[in-house]
Amino acid sequence: MKRILKACIPFTLLLSILISSQAIPAIAAEPAVNEDWTRFPLIAHALGGIDGVDYTNSLEAFQTNYDKGQRLFEVDFSITKDGLLAARHDWMGYLATKFEQDIPANKLEEPLTLKEFKSYKILENYTPLSFADVARLSKKYPDVYFITDTKETDPELVKQQFTVIRDTANRIDPTILDRFIPEIYSPEMLDIVRDIIPFKHVIFSLYLTSMEPAEVVQYVKEHDVHVVAMPEERATKSFIKDLNDIGVVTYVHSLNKVKDVKKLMRMGVHGVYTDFLSYKDLGIDEAPLIAVGQTDAEKSAANLTTQDPSLTTASADTVTGQSTVAPAPTTWEKIKLLLGQLFNS
Questions:
Q1: Would you report the helix, strand and coil content of the chain in percent, each value rounded to 5?
Q2: Domain boundaries, the chain
Q3: What's the fold here for domain 31-330?
Q4: DSSP state, 50?
Q5: How far apart are CA 59 and CA 99, in angstroms?
Q6: Which of 16, 87, 275, 304 has the most CB atoms around it within 10 Å of its CB?
Q7: pTM of the entire structure?
Q8: What is the pLDDT of residues 252-299, one digit of tens each?
Q9: Residue 204 is inside which H or E element, if any?
Q10: Side-chain half-sphere CA neighbours of 14 within 13 A
């Protein structure tokens, strides 16, 4: 008996250490129900920043941030003059100035055609993308999720945008839509979008709605919405708690300071949109997060098609070249191992 009691002392100490080590997780706890993509706490805003520049929504920004471990990307889409979708935040003239694009003055404040849009390099170095280009990237990188920020709330424009998304995806590979996650800005928009595409995943995004916190909580609870995104100023402790209490995870946009992100995560926020932060900056090992989806990605990689000629600078690296990392053992697995060592010795 004394031998067993003596053996139990280090076990008890280790058990308390293991439990306490789990008390404050490095990232917000569990993915939402049926929303495995929420295992990623970081969303690369506008495909992520590149060389200190944000909002490029460019091919090179995607490649750079993919190489840094990002797998969850937000991309802006605006309707072109010829009714297609360009990966651009908006058509205001300030972006032409920011990106050093020599667009004629009479076209600075209005949509370009898709051909015109793609003819203007961003800062002379970066490649502008269409929705079709992003769809092909989705097919080439089957471990990536894309969040669409389409910005429109007018029902006819919403129908136009998501009809383009549906028809383009159907031509390239309809299965990629399982990894597209639309930002939804109102209850009306959700109904319109689901009538066009039965998306597996959606984000209810609050930056274009005046709904009160209690209204949002009630709405997402009743309409099978598991993820909510919001500007930092709307992320109050009580609001986040109310959403967490019903199993809804939250993302806040857009943050680029580690201290701000950690403060929000301590408050219960699940993750953030960011231009420049990486998992390394936050002290998070992204390898186990990526490895969870690696098996399905490797299966999909066998079906990759020849790269679209318009993406001439795309990286030749594919997901099949990545190595998998086994997830760390859980606390319970560690305890079972220790018990076996104690009582089988």
A1: 45, 15, 40
A2: 31-330
A3: TIM Barrel (3.20.20)
A4: B
A5: 14
A6: 87
A7: 0.79
A8: 999 999 999 999 999 999 999 999 999 999 999 999 999 987 655 554
A9: strand 203-205
A10: 14
